[in-house]
Every structure is written in structure tokens, then in C-alpha cells.
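Minutes, project check-in
Item: structure for the 310-residue chain
Input as provided by the requester:
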Amino acid sequence: MVKEQPGQYGVKLLELRNDFVFKSFFTDVRNNNLLLHFVNSIVGGTIISLKVIDPTNKMGHSSDKLSILDLRAITGTGEQINIEVQLERHKAFNERVLYYWSKTYASQIKSSEPYVNLKKVIQIIIVDFEMLPSGGIHSTFQLIEPTSGIVFSNHLVIHVLQLGKQQEKSSKEMDNLEKWMLFFKGDYETKEEIAMESSAFKEAFEEIKRLSMDPETVQLAINREIALRDHIQRLADAEEEGFEKGIKKGIKKGREQGLEEGREKGQEAKAIEIVQRLYEKSTPLSFIAEVTGMSVEEVKAIIDSTTKEP
């Protein structure tokens, strides 16, 4: 997953789906025009300038390897943009997307500042799994009244890009966003083909080759993938361990419950036997009730159910 198959020149390209590679690729100041080209292919070409807020930091410690490597940028008009790549889904993924959007939105102002200082926050999620079964390669979400179509606020915009929804068509028929998605997943030859169609993708192709020949970047990309896969395995192991503990607990509880039910049934059978024997000796029902701790009505019910009519 870290690297693709080598092209005709023997260069194994790093995977842009690796979030560390993605961030290294787009946050380099030399590639600002590539980031602008990519974002505009998503939002419709409305952004004139972009500035990365948090340039790539090299992961020097093991604790860094599981940090969220999202890309944060700000437009010339102050709008915030968050971009992240996700290869694995979890149950609360959609809620996590909203949480990170809200954190970015709220962080724009201090407690003493007015709400009018808040700007639009655009969340862009690139996923390599089926997040929206009925959606296509690109889905956009806003706060809209469903009947009238009235927009409550344009400050919340979420773009979901599903890499697995790529349509089968030639690169010449694709728009810029479709080309970027193909560039993400395509092999060496595919990237090279796309690079021949525009200067932006030619520049992108040269940049991914440059990163792929940098030993430090390659090693950090490998470390990132290993850390994420180890984390996934630990979660799977914990789930399996919890399942096994649940089974053992269930067996134990069932055994205890069975013993308790057995004791209750045994005591019940013993009481019925005592009632029958005392009744056969013409013992008054009131005395039988006193001995067994039952009511006279309960004693009578047992006698009626166990005594055969002649």
C-alpha cells in the first residue's frame, strides 16, 4: 500500500492514499499551486489563494504515528479548509467528521470575540471505502431545509470523495476532480498518462516521483502505514478478546442460573412430595400449610393437581 509497482524507469511511486504522503505532497510550499488546483476541482474553482496553516511535521516519535494527519488551510477571504484521507471506516466515522468540523469552526474566535467573525469551514474527506452506498465519486452536504431548499447557513460544507466510485472512462473525458481521483489510485503508467494532459498534473507527477526517491519520506510513509495497521490489529484483537470473555461470562452465568433453577425445582418437587405424603395420612390441610410454609390454597391446589380421581 505504501508504494505502487515500479514504472518503466524503475521508480516505485509512493501512495497518495497514505495520509502522511498526502500531507507531504500538498503542504510543501513549492506545491501550493497544486493544492489550489486540487481544492478548486472540488469546490468549483471559487478560491483564488490558499495558505497552509500547519506545514508537514516529520514524525520523530512513536506517539506521533497515530496522530490525525489532516491538512488545514485558509483562503484569502479567511475561509477554513480541512482535508483528510481515510482508508478504514469505524462505526462513528460520520460523527467524527462533524466533531472535527465543529472544533475547527469554534477555534476561529476567542470567548471575547463576536460570532460575526466566524468564517465558513469546508471539510473535505477522501475515503477509500464505501462511506455513502448511494453516492458517487463526489457528494456535497450543507445545512439545507429539505422541502424549500433554503440554506440555513453556508458556513458548513462537507465534501465526501469516494475513491472506489471512480467511473470507467478515458482520462480525456474526465474533469479535473475525476483526474485527481484517478491520479490518487492509478499506477505509474496511469499517472504518467494524466500528466501528459496538463501542466498541473505534469507537476504533480514530478512531485510524487521526487517524494518517492527521498529515503526519509519513504521510511516515514512505511512507519505510518505499519503504525496504522498495528492499531487496526490491536482493535481487532481487543474485539475478539471481548467476544471470548463475553462467551465465558455467558456460560458461567448460564451455569449459575441453571443450578439456581435446578435448586428451585428440586425444592418445589420436595414440597409437593411432603404435601402428598401428609395428605395420604389424613393430615389437616391447615397443618400441612404450616409445615411447608404454604397457604392452605396452595396446598389444596397441589392436592387437586396430583390426586387422581377414583
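Outcome recorded: The CA atoms of residues 23 and 71 lie 6 Å apart.
No further action items on this chain.
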